[in-house]
Design brief:
- The complex is a heterodimer of chains A (about 375) and B (about 500).
- Chain A has about 375 residues and is α/β, with parallel strands linked by helices.
- Chain A folds into two domains: about 90 residues, 3-Layer(bba) Sandwich (Glucose Oxidase, domain 1); about 270 residues, Aldolase class I (TIM Barrel, Alpha-Beta Barrel), CATH 3.20.20.70.
- An eight-stranded mixed beta sheet of chain A has the order 1-8-7-3-4-5-6-2. In chain A, strands 9-10-11-12-13-14-15 form a seven-stranded parallel beta sheet, with helices on one face.
- Chain A is globular.
- Chain B has about 500 residues and is an alpha/beta fold.
- Chain B folds into three domains: about 80 residues, no CATH class; about 300 residues, TIM Barrel; about 70 residues, no CATH class.
- Chain B is built from 19 helices and 15 strands.
- Chain B has an eight-stranded mixed beta sheet, sandwiched between helices. Chain B has a three-stranded antiparallel beta sheet with strand order 2-3-4, with no helix packed on it. In chain B, strands 1-5 form a two-stranded antiparallel ribbon.
- In chain B, helix 7 packs across helix 9 and helix 11 crosses helix 12.
- The chains are: A alpha/beta (about 375), B alpha/beta (about 500).
- At the A-B interface, helix 4, helix 5 and helix 6 of A face helix 2, helix 3 and helix 19 of B.
Chain lengths: ~375, ~500
């Protein structure tokens, strides 16, 4: 699944955000018309921009356009895209997906060994903020769930809270899931500011990788990160914010995993959900693979103990990014089909598996780095 | 505000070490030898580590290092036993944990026991309080005292109060219970407090009419069941009838009308019971109870006037272990069946929370969690306190229902008891590893040792708690499947 394509930009001076339509009679505001030929009788005022695979010849004067785009197959009616000065067409929102995410910033104050989307040290915050404000106004009101990711979204500072206020006002029925390392909330004023929004549909997903600061700080490559995150979680709990803990499973986090589960129950019993997540082979991970790789088959005991302990104490637990054939059957009930549709793939041998429909499969980028124990369920064994 | 990072080159784990010069600071913790090989270390909020004997000494002597004992070092840091800074960077988290453990203090007195009548149609030999008499005027709580008790109950700052009717046999004064329930319901509704009602009864007098009333007013039933018929009837004598047969019939009828979970039972261990741990557990299991509370007899007062009920703490512990073994067998077979004393300890040992059980708290549950309004208008610190009063020992009498709230709950007597109600400040307890799991019991120590403060080396309270806590920890640490069972008992799920 493609989330971006590129053509040649014309009359675009700043990023524009709009809804895709192929219907020339459409009159919606902020519409980008996709067309092969521009009909002679078209009311071009109905559209904010024109997107076409054709060449430059019949562009309308001063009407923003991207031309010579290879294809638009990935775009559905109503999808929201940003078109840029350089001709990039980035998909921001897909109407047929439950996995839409706002990118807050690519800046980050951590540098996790296994980061799937490595941070960039440039100030993209004002630009992304303005795109996102526009985007939020265009998202259908029946959107069920929306993520906010980065980078570290709280680095936006006040703009982070304004984004949430805007979301609460414009999409009151939408569940919002923010991925943050939580460190900023070590400052109580940040947690207090968040609480002021009084946003019950907001859930913060915060990673904790170890019960011991030095292991956590090493994994996230940031001094003091563990203490800041734990203090941040307590500040958030003080203001009744909804929290999910996210634990990525790899060679550095596995040795203390069951101790981490106890630590969460003892010190963070207020969390609503704990997710244990398989390693993604993308971003920094390939570079650090020697430090990170452990076959999921080799950690099922630790994972099972952690999951069953927390679940036994009444905490909602999930396992993400794992395949059923690698896990013992007693853990299947915790497995979720968590991988976003556009990243989700299966191995060739999975096609014969009788449990294919129940299995979360793999990240596309894990097709070449996965457990050695993946094996289709066939009728004979079952 | 935390800024972005200046340099994104990956560093080795050692770079993230915050320790200075290989040193560390000790946080408050206590320790205790579990057996020949292991000792337990318990931190300020009840988290524990089980380590080989002698480890405490190496920790205190600063012989633990990141290099040579990396896993233990991490455990000690992560679990608040040592710190790399004089003030632990997560001291606020530790403070929150401490407050959570003492959360039971937040709301002050919840349980209000009304001794609605001292009259009883049973003549249990271990009972301090029953009177077989028809003299209502002398042994029933008067309407004026009920009114005054309700008034005081609703002065409690606790948003959720429990009104528990005890006896004698409470149902002998059922009309007065109805009066008290209806009046309290009305006031609770007006002032926005939650209220739970409990009737403690032997169920001999229960009938459908009473139970339908209980159903209508959401009144819980708490009864006595000492074991199978031979034990129960021997312990709990009722002239010309089988107490057991009446109790079982009453339990069944109560469950039918009120629902299974609205009826609970308590047992008292007598000398006779000591010989029958298995049969007693089986009786509770077969009767369909979700668990049993193995309770020793109060080792003082009226109960000890007869040789029949005197036994040593050793004997009770032996009984307890056998009974617990039977309970675990049921669990090994896949049945969920708990022992409730263990559940109270285990909640303290294994969770960040505490229990509302008033007999095992520090500060003690007396006054802070429970108060007793006696039939004659006397106000006592605990149920045992009013039983001492039956022996003409009024040490724990706080006053009468005619006194002011502040004089009862914060008066001279309460202040005197408060000196000795925290085990953190009692010799023999202040340095005890199990302090966080245990409580203080001034009434017990006064009754058995003549001194509220108590002397731990000869205290039966101490002996029982130390050994049962030690035994529970030893059991679950030696058998992972027992630990899983124990964890299931304390689950909030």
């Amino acid at each position: 699944m493609n989330l971006k394509t590129k053509g040649v930009a014309k009359y675009i001076n700043e990023p524009l955000v709009g809804r895709i339509t192929r219907d020339v009679s459409s009159t919606g505001e902020n519409s980008f018309l996709i067309c092969e030929e521009i009909p002679a009788d078209i009311n071009t005022n109905s559209f904010e921009a024109i997107l076409t695979s054709k060449d430059t010849s019949h562009l309308v004067e001063n009407k923003p356009a991207v031309y010579a785009v290879p294809n638009f197959d990935h775009l559905s009616e109503g999808d929201i895209v940003a078109i840029n000065e350089d001709g990039n067409i980035n998909t921001l929102y897909r109407v047929n997906s439950f996995h839409n995410v706002l990118l807050a910033t690519e800046r980050c104050n951590s540098n996790c060994l296994m980061c799937s989307q490595p941070p960039k040290d440039r100030n993209d915050i004002p630009r992304l903020y303005s795109i996102n404000q526009k985007l939020i106004s265009l998202i259908p009101k029946d959107c069920i769930e929306l993520g906010i990711s980065g980078g570290e979204p709280t680095l936006m500072g006040e703009m982070f809270f304004q984004t949430l206020e805007n979301l609460k006002e414009q999409l009151p029925e939408t569940e919002i899931h923010v991925l943050t390392n939580g460190r900023s909330f070590a400052w109580q004023s940040m947690a207090e500011r968040l609480a002021k929004i009084d946003y019950r549909r907001l859930m913060l997903g915060v990673p904790v990788y170890s019960d011991y600061y030095q292991v956590h700080d090493y994994i996230v490559q940031a001094r003091d990160a563990f203490n800041q995150t734990i203090l941040g979680l307590h500040n958030l709990a003080r203001y009744n914010q909804r929290i999910e803990i996210r634990v990525v499973l790899h060679k550095q986090s596995i040795p203390r995993l069951t101790k981490l589960a106890k630590y969460i129950f003892k010190n963070l019993p207020f969390v609503e959900h704990v997710a244990f997540m398989g390693l993604e082979f993308i971003g920094y991970t390939p570079h650090n693979i020697e430090k990170l790789w452990i076959d999921p088959h080799d950690y099922i005991e630790e994972l099972g103990e952690a999951v069953e302990f927390l679940s036994g104490q009444g905490i909602h637990v999930s396992i993400y990014n794992s395949q059923l054939c690698v896990l013992p059957e007693n853990l299947w009930q915790y497995c979720r089909k968590s991988i976003s549709d556009w990243k989700n793939e299966y191995l060739p041998e999975c096609q014969n598996c009788l449990k294919l429909n129940d299995c979360g499969g793999l990240f596309r980028w894990n097709l070449n780095k996965h457990s050695d124990y993946i094996k289709p369920f066939t009728a004979i064994e079952m | 505000m935390i800024e972005s990072k200046a340099n994104r080159k990956f560093k080795e784990a050692a770079f993230y070490n915050s320790q200075n010069d290989g040193g560390y600071f000790l946080l408050p913790f206590k320790f205790h030898r579990l057996n020949g090989e292991k000792e337990i270390l318990v931190n300020e909020v009840g988290d524990y580590l089980i380590l080989p004997t002698g480890t405490t000494a190496t920790i205190v002597n600063r012989q633990i290092s990141k290099e040579n004992n990396s896993e233990l070092y991490g455990d000690l840091i992560a679990n608040f036993f040592i710190s790399e800074e004089a003030i632990h960077p997560l001291i606020d988290v530790l403070a929150t944990r401490y407050r959570t453990k003492k959360h039971f203090l937040n709301y002050f007195t919840g349980l209000h026991i009304f001794v609605i009548s001292l009259r009883c149609e049973h003549t249990c030999f271990y009972c301090q309080v029953s009177r077989v008499t028809e003299n209502r005027d002398q042994y029933d709580m008067s309407i004026q005292n009920i009114d005054r008790g309700i008034e005081i109950m609703f002065k409690s700052p606790n948003p959720h109060v429990t009104m528990e009717f005890q006896g004698g046999e409470a149902l002998l004064a059922f009309d007065n219970i109805k009066y008290a329930v209806e009046k309290s319901e009305k006031i609770a509704g007006e002032i926005g407090k939650q209220i739970t009602f409990v009737i403690c009864t032997n169920l001999a007098l229960v009938n459908e009419e009473i139970l339908y009333y209980c159903k209508e007013h959401k009144i819980l039933i708490s009864t006595s069941l000492d074991g199978p018929q031979s034990i129960h009837d021997s312990n709990r004598h009722k002239p010309h009838a089988s107490s057991y047969a009446l109790a079982i019939k009453g339990i069944k009828l109560s469950r039918e009308i009120l629902g299974e979970d609205q009826v609970s039972a308590l047992m008292t261990t007598t000398t006779l019971s000591l010989e029958h741990p298995i049969e007693i557990v089986d009786e509770y299991y077969n009767m369909g109870f979700p668990g049993i509370f193995l309770r020793n007899i109060s080792p003082y007062g009226f109960a000890l006037r007869t040789e029949k009920s005197k036994y040593s703490t050793d004997k009770f512990i032996e009984f307890y272990k056998k009974a617990l073994g039977r309970i675990l067998e049921y669990n090994f077979q896949g049945h969920y069946f708990t022992e409730d004393l263990a559940r109270i300890y285990l909640t303290k040992i294994l969770t960040p929370f505490n229990t509302g059980f008033v007999d095992m708290q520090s500060p003690a549950g007396l006054i802070n969690g429970v108060i007793v309004f006696n039939y004659d208008g006397g106000v006592y610190a605990t149920d045992e306190s009013r039983m001492l009063a039956e022996q003409k020992d009024f040490t724990f009498k706080l006053g009468t229902l005619n006194d002011e709230y502040k004089d009862l709950f914060f008066g001279a007597k309460a202040q005197e008891i408060a000196q000795v109600w925290s085990n953190e400040a009692l010799a023999g307890c202040s340095e005890c590893a199990f302090q966080a799991y245990c409580g203080a019991d001034p009434v017990h120590h006064h009754a058995t040792q003549g001194d509220m403060y108590g002397y731990r080396p000869t205290s039966a309270f101490c002996q029982k708690n130390m050994e049962i806590i030690r035994y529970l920890i030893e059991l679950m640490e030696s058998e992972p499947k027992i630990k899983k069972i124990f964890e299931s008992w304390i689950s909030k799920k």
